[in-house]
Design brief:
Radius of gyration: 25 Å
Number of strands: 23
Oligomer: single chain
Structural class: alpha/beta
Distance between the termini: 80 Å
Bound molecules: glutamine
Strand content: 15-25%
Strand order of the largest sheet: 13-12-14-15-23-22-21-18-19
Largest sheet: 9 strands, mixed
């Protein structure tokens, strides 16, 4: 009989697996991104990947209320919002390979089964599903591009869904050469205020569950609201079978960007390079991050910005936009107060009230008809009152609709997404989209080039003629109306050089201080160390608005 697994994998790349226990929402993504940042700042080449235990192929079809924002990569993958954190912390691009779901794993295995690839064998979770998980876990390591690949396992240890992923980690720890991989477990140490005590039992239980699955964590990171004493750390170490000193605290931070510094203070990066036998004695250079944090902490001005959208009750739904505003605020040494305004509640009668005092109005992306008229009202208010306006994707589309209705006089102008019968389809579906019946992964997705017209606001902002931005939409500015818009003052200032599709519309500086709508999603590319120029300029314009 052939042994069950004969494979020993030789690879230069080191692997770090990060699991979470006790409760969800502990900020595993931030911890993974922080560790990656520290390793990168030591001069190592690092990437992070996320394995999500849900059955959707990707989060593209998920309602943002379910799972927060869908983050889009340059290569057009619709991914988990944690990839946004990875890119923001590391300043490097991720790709399709960086986010894998149970759905993708099963899809591959079932397709192979239908092709007869398993030669009559019974296809099972172990080894077929776990083999496919392992294959994907190692992929980025095989490119030779990275010294360390961090893998975050979504969900909480003990969930039925994550079992195959934990089993894959167990097998890899056995198959990979000694010293080339390690495992970190993030847990919660709750504080019981009645007893005035931090409790370690949930952590002990969570680690026991991981051990039962065959995975012994090398480091335990405890999320806590209060500092962990040495005694408590020793207790966790003893009961969880890790070395003293390998229990570290992740105390609530004032900014997510402070977490890498906190983790460094806890020697996390040092523990990891030692454990992985990486001969790297550089101390991480975190000066740029520190500069950013300093500006963030000591703003010289404040500004009120309205974020108009329909998913306002869930913070994570507009994660990248909120982060881009934080980056832009710091770049301007300005504290940005974001006021979420539910577009479903805005009407012509109350718009003044809803947006009173705002120095800038950002109309958010979105899908479907709910809250659209409120977005149109918000654009009108910004345009007429010369308040800095920034429309993103659907926000740009609604600024085109508003202008068509109220300036061009096309009273029923609309996007065919919500009104297919309109006599003025100023936003319309692309021809190739009309044939598509499938929902998942079928939009205009990922990075496309955009050529900017000279002597426009966009050109001034970007300072270059050719840019590249990421997309996620089906509908487009209808070029049939471009002349009408231009004559009335709304110009198209950015176009796709290959297809001619309109990417940016704007009002000239002579009529409005800052009025710009972009079909793409600039928020995906903003980082603390490289704030996006559009967000930076929007905040600067808002600061000048009196
Ligand atoms: N619903 C619009 C479209 O599909 C806008 C999408 C978006 O805002 N991301 O074109």
């Amino acid at each position: 009989m052939v042994p069950f697994c004969t494979q020993v994998i030789f690879m230069e790349t080191k692997f770090v697996f990060i699991t979470g226990g006790v409760v969800s929402s502990l900020g595993k993504g931030i911890i993974a991104a922080s560790l990656a940042k520290l390793l990168q700042a030591r001069g190592l080449r690092v990437t992070i990947q996320k394995f999500d235990p849900y059955i959707n192929i990707d989060p593209g079809t998920l309602n943002p209320y379910e799972h927060g924002e869908c983050y889009v990569t340059d290569d057009g993958a619709e991914t988990d919002l944690d990839l946004g954190h990875y890119e923001r912390f590391l300043g490097v691009h991720t790709s399709k390979a960086n986010n894998v779901t149970t759905g993708k794993i099963y899809n591959t295995v079932i397709t192979k089964e239908r092709e007869g690839a398993y030669l009559g064998k019974t296809v099972q979770i172990v080894p077929h599903i776990t083999d496919e998980i392992k294959r994907r876990m190692l992929l980025l390591g095989q490119t030779g591009e990275f010294d360390v690949v961090l893998t975050e396992i979504g969900g909480t240890v003990g969930d039925m869904e994550s079992l195959p992923f934990i089993e894959a980690v167990r097998q890899l720890q056995w198959e990979l050469p000694e010293g080339s991989c390690m495992s970190i477990h993030l847990t919660l140490v709750p504080y019981l205020s009645a007893a005035k005590e931090l409790k370690t039992k949930p952590t002990q239980h969570s680690v026991q569950m991981l051990q039962q699955a065959g995975v012994q964590p090398d480091v335990i990171i405890c999320r806590t609201e209060h500092p962990l004493s040495d005694e408590l750390r020793r207790k966790v170490a003893l009961f969880c079978n890790v070395k003293p000193g390998h229990v570290i605290q992740s105390i609530d931070a004032w900014s997510i960007y402070q977490v890498p510094l906190n983790m460094h203070a806890e020697h996390l990066d040092e523990l990891v390079v030692r454990k992985l036998g990486i001969e790297n004695f550089n101390q991480p250079d975190l000066s740029k991050l520190e500069e950013f944090l300093d500006r963030l902490k000591h703003p010289k001005k404040e500004v009120d910005i309205a974020l108009v959208g329909k998913y306002v009750s869930l913070q994570d739904a507009y994660k990248s936009i909120l982060e881009a505003l934080v980056h832009a605020g710091a770049a301007n040494s300005c504290k940005v107060h974001i006021h979420s305004v539910n577009s479903e509640e805005i009407t012509a009668a109350n718009v003044t009230d809803k947006l009173k005092g705002m120095k800038g109005i950002l109309v958010a992306p979105g899908f479907g008809s709910r809250g659209l008229e409120g977005k149109v009202e918000a654009v009108k208010y910004a345009r007429e009152n010369k308040i800095p306006f920034f429309g993103i994707c659907l926000g740009m589309q609604m600024c085109v609709v508003e202008f068509a209705r109220n300036v061009l006089g096309f009273k029923d102008a609309d996007s065919t997404e919500v009104n297919p019968e309109t006599t003025h389809p100023v936003i319309d579906m692309m021809e190739d989209q009309k044939k598509t019946t499938m929902k998942g992964g079928t939009m205009r997705l990922g990075a496309y080039e955009c050529e900017i017209t000279k002597d426009t606001l966009s050109y001034k902002i970007y300072g270059s003629k050719l840019i590249s931005e990421r997309h996620r939409h089906r509908y487009e500015f209808n070029a049939r109306y471009a002349d009408d818009f231009r004559k009335a003052g709304l110009i198209t200032s950015g176009h796709n050089p290959q297809t001619g599709l309109t990417e940016i519309v704007e009002l000239p500086a002579s009529v409005h201080p800052f009025f710009i709508g972009v079909q793409f999603h600039p928020e995906y590319k903003s980082t603390p160390e490289n704030p996006h120029p559009l967000f930076r300029s929007f905040i600067a314009a808002a600061m000048n608005f009196v």
